[in-house]
User: Fold these one by one.
Assistant:
Number 1:
Amino acid sequence: MDNERPSPSTESPRLVRRKTLLRTALAAGAAVPVALIGGPALARTLSSTGAAAPLTPACDDGDDPTPEQMEGPYFKPHSPQRTDLLEPGMPGTRLTVSGYVFGGACLPVSGALLDFWQADDNGDYDNTGFRLRGHQYTDSRGAFTLTTIVPGLYPGRTRHLHVKVQAPGRPVLTTQLYFPNEPRNNTDMLFDARLLMNVRNGNGGREAAFDFVLDVPQDPGPSPTGPPPSGSAWATGTAYRAGDRVTHAGRAYVCLQAHTAQPGWEPPTAPALWRAV
Ligand SMILES: [Fe+2]
């Protein structure tokens, strides 16, 4: 297990500077997974000391892709495709992890691979089978949900999930996700506050949220799924898809995530949903 210990790092936990698209979407009331609605302040936007980090006002700075972390010794290829890792009689606290995968232009990435693996409630990895291992793909909105248990602790590490994330045809991001308020976060040299999930209690267990940002190029132009309403005026009641373009008050905007427009969600006031182009 010590193999997973990192070499001494000069990178200490620091103030989280994450894209806040999802957080803004929540504030704007945009359509998001039920598991994310009504949650507390996103834990991943908190520093290791609990202080709120400054908000990033727009999801277009392109400077904060999800950090990489070491794979560790327990990854196994060819995990089964599944979103639910629970098995009958499996001990542990139930956990769901929901979120989105975004690309460099802050547009959602559909069909992105997420391959999760983790320790069981006892802190052990299944190195002979595929218990608590599984891969899945983001849906058309770039969203994913994993159903599993809270991983147990094992010597030398704080609580964590392992994951590989890959946009179609792009390099693999290998990283780990962390839980807030874990005592060992302060002593695990690998811990990175930028990889903290937002975790709350609920639904008979714990619900976590995290959105990945991959350092992959994206064309924020027309949606590949069909002709966008290019040039048409933004209008309430319209179902927009990521990549759709509209005009509003003489300016052009591109849709960042699918939603149905409502009063108060005008593009200039909903940066989670629209970006000026
Ligand atoms: Fe691990």
Number 2:
Amino acid sequence: MVAVLVHTSERRSHLRTVGERSTLGTMPRIDDQRYLSHHQYRTPERLAARAALHARFGIGPQGWWSWVFDQLELRPDQHVLEVGAGSGSLWRANRKQVPEGLTVVVTDVSPGMVDEACTTLAGDARFDFATLDVAAIPFTDATFDAVIANHMLYHAPNVAEAVNELARVLRPGGQLFAATNGENHLRELHELIHIAEPRYSPEAVRNGAFSLENAVDVLKSIGPAQVRPFDNRLWVTETEPLVNYALSLWDTEGWTDAPAVDAMRALVEERIRTDAGIRITKDTGLVVVMKAVDCAPSPTGTMPS
Ligand SMILES: C[S@@+](CC[C@H](N)C(=O)[O-])C[C@H]1O[C@@H](n2cnc3c(N)ncnc32)[C@H](O)[C@@H]1O
């Protein structure tokens, strides 16, 4: 049976008010929670445009969702939480491999994303769904054997607070799997957009306060973390999927009919005509950390048997 839990976060004090559209290139919106849940992730379309580019033009030994799933090494008796799960792609892509007996709570701060996950995974007793903010997880301490936070911690306005929450709901010995990007991720794409529209900054902070470069430090309060890079790159041979990707980003919001879009399309077409495709670096991966098992001595000074 699929249960839909509804949690309304009362932690609204950090929300900033933003207009419907940004002035081009002026506002980094990566941790603007109102913008993220009301615009960027209100519905799954923008995220789907980005995922489509990776799925169609990614080159490497294994696709992203299959690789992530293998890293989790899930067992049938485990209880798993995914925060910022988007539309639940991880579970849809690996549904046949999810062990019977495993239970997963698929969650996101955007109700639109949770609706999509719930609809597409409906009728599967292994999954429950909840709308929740990673900064205020409505579960008691030590509830989960594994917690997954894929490409979402960089959206948290206070990453330390989010990490504390993730650690709190993990049982001792449980693992956090957090995906994020490094500073070279999609470097050529951001440079292309910048050529089409010089006010677009290719150097803008896109991984916020949680990147492959600083993740080990950010997670050290939980335990020693290990970075596992994902071996993949893009070879893009069609114009529109790349343009759609660029237009799905938070710092191109509102560009739909701007001259920059025509310039970008023309540039991409020309590069593909000349070189047969555009090579784009991927710098992404998973950071894995185990919550320490409390090994304080028992009151008698003897270790439990
Ligand atoms: C880049 S998407 C990744 C979605 C999914 N994990 C994936 O990899 O396809 C980031 C997701 O994090 C969610 N998110 C942003 N801020 C959040 C928060 N404070 N708490 C929980 N989810 C959040 C967004 O709504 C969005 O669905």
Number 3:
Amino acid sequence: MLYKVSLVSLSDVTRPRNPASIPPLQLAVTAALDASSADRDVARAAAARHGLPFAPRRGRSLAAVAEQAGAEALLVLSPRRSALFVDGAEHPWRAGMAALRVKRLLSGERVTVDGFLDAAGLRPGDALLDATLGMGMDALVAAAAVGAGGRVVGVEASRALAALAAEGLARCELEAARRVEVVHGDAAALLGSLPARSFDVVVFDPMFRYGRAAASGFDLVRRLADPRPLAPETLARARQVARRWVVVKDGTPGWDLIRLGLQPIPSARGAKKMYARVEAEAG
Ligand SMILES: C[S@@+](CC[C@H](N)C(=O)[O-])C[C@H]1O[C@@H](n2cnc3c(N)ncnc32)[C@H](O)[C@@H]1O
């Protein structure tokens, strides 16, 4: 198993400031109960990479490890699994529906609509900035769409979600997962530090403020996510950083798109998500 975690190279992308809007969550890294000493070394190295403390497992329950480490959450790593222990439950990272979407894309199946891919309009070799990475599901699908010559950078404001996604993607069997570079930080700060026209496409999928019932796996994101809506000035900056266009996702009926003055792309009847595409600023 290759433990390559793509944390973005800082030569061309400046690491953004930590987001101020999320209350800090005391997070530590530990290993699975049955970890070998090599597995423990891998978990320890991951902790160092994410700038997090390593809490030895020593056969204890996750609750006991967290309590002794003074941690509110634990990133639990094993050779094939990355999970977050928070509020007394373990939440594994899974490619889930994204794996199915990648499979459909790679097999050329066009019957099922993928609203994200249609809106993003990605081409082989593209560089995509996912400004709201979350669990990295859309980023993983995008990485398959841009192919081996392409690049996907995902920025996530929550340290816990960024670390979970980075380690989950590093353990994901899909080849496209190797192409997702994870950055922990604030998208607005990152966009401010990037040169104009440095990515083909920039996408935003902010938390839906008017969202419906959560799909499975979404509760963890809701618990840890940065809830701020997309600011008009961040969208304006993204239009400078993009060479082609910026895509914004919203939940139906698209109140945030209306707030931002964006025209939704017509979607299938009953669709729960809406997309708008804004041209890059000419320059
Ligand atoms: C709806 S989720 C994104 C889900 C993602 N598209 C996926 O497919 O897994 C929104 C995520 O964006 C993050 N976020 C919101 N505002 C952000 C910002 N300014 N900078 C970085 N991440 C942000 C939240 O913390 C949350 O994890």
Number 4:
Amino acid sequence: MKEVEEMGYAKQLLMEEQARLYHTSEDAVCPSCFHDSGIKAFIKANRECNECSVCGKVARRPIAANADRVLEFFLDKVHRYYQEPVLLQQYVDRLHRRHDCK
Ligand SMILES: [Zn+2]
């Protein structure tokens, strides 16, 4: 039941992330802050905030999506396409560094 174990791992990571990001759950991210075309597309389809918490860009129309939702999307995408926990952890670390130095 390898698949179930991996699902459990992704879910556990997601829950840890959500717990860690709880106090910053109002953060939003814009497409310019990501290189991945899938994430850019997801953000563009889910824009609901006028300000990006990462790069500080502000607009009169929604340009950024909720960071937690983007992270959830990313976790799901990584799990499905890469099946590689190391890449996932690297991404999560990178996201945190971006949050720290905003
Ligand atoms: Zn941004």
